[in-house]
Design a protein that fits this description.
Layout: E1 5-10, H1 16-26, E2 30-35, H2 39-45, H3 57-64, E3 69-72, H4 75-81, E4 84-87, H5 107-119, E5 124-128, H6 136-147, E6 152-156, H7 166-171, E7 176-180, H8 184-197, E8 206-210, H9 211-242, H10 246-254, H11 275-288, H12 292-319, E9 328-332, H13 347-357, E10 361-365, H14 371-377, E11 386-388, H15 392-396, E12 401-404, H16 416-422, E13 428-431, H17 438-444, E14 447-450
Parallel strand pairs: 1-2, 1-4, 2-3, 4-5, 5-6, 7-8, 9-10, 9-12, 10-11, 12-13, 13-14
The structure holds 1,4-dihydronicotinamide adenine dinucleotide.
1,4-dihydronicotinamide adenine dinucleotide (NAI) is lined by residues 10-16, 35-38, 41, 75, 88-91, 108, 111-112, 130-131, 159, 161, 163, 273-274.
Protein name: UDP-glucose 6-dehydrogenase
EC number: 1.1.1.22
Domain UDP-glucose/GDP-mannose dehydrogenase C-terminal: 330-438
Length: 462
């Protein structure tokens, strides 16, 4: 078959993989090649067990792979034949040097750009898919211009998908945002990319803007989302001390259409690879543009999140008679949220580390996170300190306490009477996601601690 257009994507991660898969599904006439430096990752994309888990993804990959969707480590070949090149490489927080701990590390981005310039044999549209600081596209355009005789248009097309619902978000996005240079060539490039999305996204949801607005919109969106979580979490602490119920407060404010009901769930804290990194990035930008008040304002979102994680760990220790030393604690859920196996910045890491420091023995169960990943995240703890179980009942047997750290649906329907019988008394439950039926647990005999609910004021049913 003759393809009408060729696309390639550098970076076959949580963003590049699903995004390109959905483009391939919706545009059978476009050849889509997803590339990565990691042979292991590409091999996994070409196998039966994909490197990431997303509901619905496997079916779509299998439907398009080998037809118009390809996964390859041959970056040069894919770049050469592509009209449009997406760059979806990682942009982690810098670990050292200027802006360490806050600024985005753009080395992978710039290397990808220079590489494209060195091998391109014609003009290309480069699409910034990674989340990057404002003005990165302009810098990239200069790198490309100075290293190649061909014309490159750099577009910003930030991705708003959420892990766990990536396929659904890509098929039915609230909006797609395409930013570009407001020149004739820039506008033409914007139109070319926007037209691909318009094949399945209603035109009014495909927003076009200038480069910097697009870049800043992504950082701002994540800052606002995280801010809502920190805001309700701050109120959860107040609820615990006053007898108010944070879920009731969240409901009461969320029905106000000006506030809206989403992203108001109090929890042990937010995680994921993006929120903290992107806010730090925004904070760094504000400081470098001489706006310390703005920087401090957003930084507080992270301070509150760190405090919430720590507060939860401290509550566990104080509730269990101020010592967890030698006690077995069952941890249900390790991923940073349900329906994903991703553990980047998961609050579970912080809580588990605190418990290990206090001398507890952990048994962890998560439906999707691999044992290798948990071991890696916890710094390869000794097996007598931490064991990973394949079954929630096994994890809970013989434990003094259960800590629910991810809101997996399957935790709601476990047989807690059976679990209670298998545990050491008194049995504690620390519900870090407020997903369990607390009244029922108390009836069984558990001591229940939940986020934003006062312990003493709860009536114990008998
Ligand atoms: P990831 O770490 O899962 O994937 C990035 C991939 O790029 C890695 O597999 C890496 O080997 C590869 N890579 C690095 N340099 C390369 C090069 N020169 N050529 C080819 N491949 C290269 O990262 P993820 O989660 O997909 O994020 C990518 C970007 O998208 C980040 O900037 C992130 O902030 C942003 N983003 C992430 C979202 C998420 O939910 N994870 C949502 C929206 C945006």
């Amino acid at each position: 078959t003759e393809f009408t257009c060729r696309i390639c994507c550098l970076g076959a991660g949580y963003v590049g993989g699903p995004t390109m898969t959905v483009i391939a599904k919706m545009c059978p006439d476009i050849k889509v090649t997803v590339c990565d430096l990691s042979e292991r990752r590409i091999a996994a994309w070409n196998s039966k067990s994909l490197p990431i888990y997303e509901p619905g993804l496997q079916e779509i990959v299998e439907g398009a792979r080998g037809k118009n969707l390809f996964f390859s480590t041959d970056i040069d070949a894919a770049v050469r034949e592509a009209d449009i090149i997406f760059v979806s490489v990682n942009t982690p927080t810098k670990k050292s040097g200027i802006g360490a701990g806050q600024a985005a590390d753009l080395q992978y981005w710039e290397l990808a750009g220079r590489h494209i310039a060195s091998i391109a044999e014609g003009p290309k549209i480069i699409v910034e898919k990674s989340t990057v600081p404002v003005k990165t596209a302009a810098a990239m355009a200069r790198v490309l211009e100075s290293n190649s005789k061909f014309a490159f248009e750099v577009l910003s097309n930030p991705e708003f998908l959420a892990e766990g619902t990536a396929v659904e978000d890509l098929l039915r996005p609230d909006r797609v945002l395409v930013g570009g240079e407001q020149t004739p060539a820039g506008l033409a490039a914007i139109d070319k990319l926007a037209n691909i999305y318009r094949r399945w996204v209603p035109t009014e949801k495909v927003l076009t803007t200038n480069l910097w607005s697009a870049e800043l919109s992504k950082l701002t969106a994540n800052a606002f989302l995280a801010q809502r979580i920190s805001s309700i979490n701050s109120i959860s602490a107040l609820c615990e001390n006053t007898g108010a119920d944070v879920d009731e407060v969240a409901h009461a404010i969320g029905v106000d259409s000006r506030i809206g009901p989403k992203f108001l769930r109090a929890s042990v804290g937010f995680g994921g690879s993006c929120f903290q990194k992107d806010i730090l990035n925004l904070v760094y930008l504000c400081r470098s543009f001489g706006l310390p008040e703005v920087a401090n304002y957003w930084e507080a979102v992270i301070t509150m999140n760190n405090w919430q994680k720590q507060r939860f760990a401290e509550k566990m220790v104080s509730a269990m008679f101020n010592t967890v030393s030698g006690k077995k604690i069952a941890v249900l859920g390790f991923a940073f949220k349900k329906d994903t196996g991703d553990t980047r910045e998961t609050p579970a890491i912080h809580v588990c580390e605190q418990m290990i420091k206090e001398g507890a023995a952990l048994s962890i169960y998560d439906p999707k996170v691999t044992v290798e990943q948990m071991n890696y995240d916890l710094g390869s703890p000794s097996p007598d300190k931490v064991c990973m179980e394949q079954d929630a009942y096994v994890a809970c047997a013989g434990a003094h306490a259960i800590a629910v750290l991810t809101e997996w649906d399957e935790f709601k329907t476990l047989d807690y009477s059976r679990i209670y019988t298998s545990m050491v008394k008194p049995c504690f439950v620390f519900d870090g996601r407020n997903i369990l039926d607390h009244a029922k647990l108390r009836q069984i005999g558990f001591q229940v601690f939940a986020i934003g609910k006062s312990f003493s004021n709860e009536t114990v049913l008998d």
